[in-house]
């Protein structure tokens, strides 16, 4: 992690500020909460004391009833009930106070109800005691004593409840005192922590602001130093708005000294002026669009300017960056770069010219090596640790080695001569090669060579040192020794070759010619005379003479092509008509080339009579037109025939069904069987006609081809065959299939037929399973019987576990109306697989079948990638 970047980042301090504010708010809220808790603890302590005082009042109240003085006081005031009423009201007031104070204590609230009842009972008993005192009977003393006992018991019960309440309140008082003490001591600490934290944030903020101020000063000083020492023009502009609030210009706010160095503009003078007014890099509002774009979109804009100052051309590369309320423009003087580019371009052109010359020289050298009869080889020496040459590596061999040894130059290149020419070490040639290198002088030697025909050839070789290798030029000198014999044999061969050539020209209807451009004289072969209807040498051939044979309608085109050939010195093959001596029209095709012969430019070429070929092509075109017309007629016939054939079938089916509906009850069993066979035959005939129409409509045009995802095709077919798949419990497993160029509905028909067949020809003892496998294969993996027109193919294999078939019927099943089973065993027309084959061939593919009877069947589809 880059801690320096994290420390200096403005975002870091913004985050820290937010965290500090949050901590301050949290601490403040905690302190406030602590104060409120302390206040609440104090209030609870006071509340407990109030309850405690109320219980004390209660104690005083019922203690009064224990004393005889209080009771006698009540008796003294027997004429007035004021004392008793005041005493009763005092008790009720105590109960009301307690009820109000203990609202937050469920336990104490439960004790108030029996306490209230006891007080009321006490008051009633005291009242009854007063009544007893007024009686003069003899039983008054006993009743009074009994009444006092009841009062004492009531007082004891009140005291018991009061004591329990007092005990609970003492416990609460102790707990609340502890809580109050805790909060009272914690509150100052929290305030102290908050004070220290605020002080810490203040100190950190102060030092950060102070450090930033120092950095800003250093940055300003550094920026001034950079702007003073930089080689780039650095300016800052602010936009000037027009009446419509659109930017019409920029005001120069800052300009460094490089404006003076490069453009001759004083920074102090141009600051405050507008860009369009004084700045040469922006002379029009259209050139100002880069600045406007950068300012509005807040993006960087880079562009180039070429200006001329005092007759000197200068290039500048400008970088415009949106900054604050304006744009910062940095201009780099790219004059040196552009001049370097021009020099580099000039140098590149020179290098290209040199490379072309080198390639020409290389081509020339290659042509020389190909044209000479010498064998030219170059070897690099291989030395051992002591520096002694022990072998050679083949670096170059020209093509002339092949007829002699049968070796191909590229095959023996970079190999050792001990591997490819081991006889070199036994014939003394190795020593000659070593001497040429070690002594640095050319070595000539002759060496015999037993060729593959068993005869001996003599070669004269010259070995010349080149670097740490040797170049050997070998010339066959066997012919020099037999030169005379060869001349005789050569003449005989020439005579034979001329005879063969004449016969070949006559058979192929070809003639050759030589045309000397400087004189216009031509030489033509004997067969050329005969092709024109003349005997050999019957007329003096020339270009003008030959023009007389050209058909008048083709003469202009012939002259045009001839003029172009003379201008470009390049002959193009062309065909034209001529009129023979007998007046017949023949079609000639001419081709040739220009060569130098004895320092003279001549044209050599051949002329072929292609009349039969052209006539055959015309016949073929006519046949194709006739075939197209017949195909159109056949398609029309298919439409009419299908309608005419299906119409009576539909009527037969309709009337048969009506008879069956109305007269079925009157049929005998035999009649029902016959009638069922009639309906099945009609349905089968309809199916045959529909399949024949489907077969005939599969065309071979590619204009409907599109990108087809076979995965989507399979999903569509599975949806269409849902009922068949569900009823047969068929399991279909498929690989991820490719996308191909094809016709979607034909691919759907192909998948439907293959999957339907697999379901139809299932075994009764096993659940049907169809596996569709896919792999991309090269053309070499296709069967040998298949003609391969593409390098790669999609291989899609449909494998089932059905009844299969014998492999001997693998070709037969793709023929129309071919079935391997009786129609009573399996339904169908015998056209489904024929349609599959036609669809696959329509997509330039191939389909083959492989089967094992009672095991499985495989249909393999190859489609081009």
Protein architecture, described:
The protein is of the alpha+beta class. The chain has six domains: 10-201, Four Helix Bundle (Hemerythrin (Met), subunit A), CATH 1.20.120; 230-333, Beta-Lactamase; 372-481, Beta-Lactamase (2-Layer Sandwich), CATH 3.30.450; 485-609, Beta-Lactamase (2-Layer Sandwich), CATH 3.30.450.20; 619-665; 698-864, Heat Shock Protein 90 (2-Layer Sandwich). Helix content is 55%, strand content 21%. It is built from 26 helices and 22 strands. It has a five-stranded antiparallel sheet. A five-stranded antiparallel sheet has the order 7-6-10-9-8. Helix 5 runs antiparallel to helix 6, helix 21 packs antiparallel against helix 22 (669-697) and helix 23 (710-720) packs across helix 25 (744-760). The protein is extended, with a radius of gyration of 60 Å. Residues 1-7, 132-136 and 819-828 have low confidence and may be disordered. Keywords: Kinase, Membrane, Phosphoprotein, Transferase, Transmembrane, Transmembrane helix. Residues 521-569 form the PAS domain. Its EC number is 2.7.13.3.
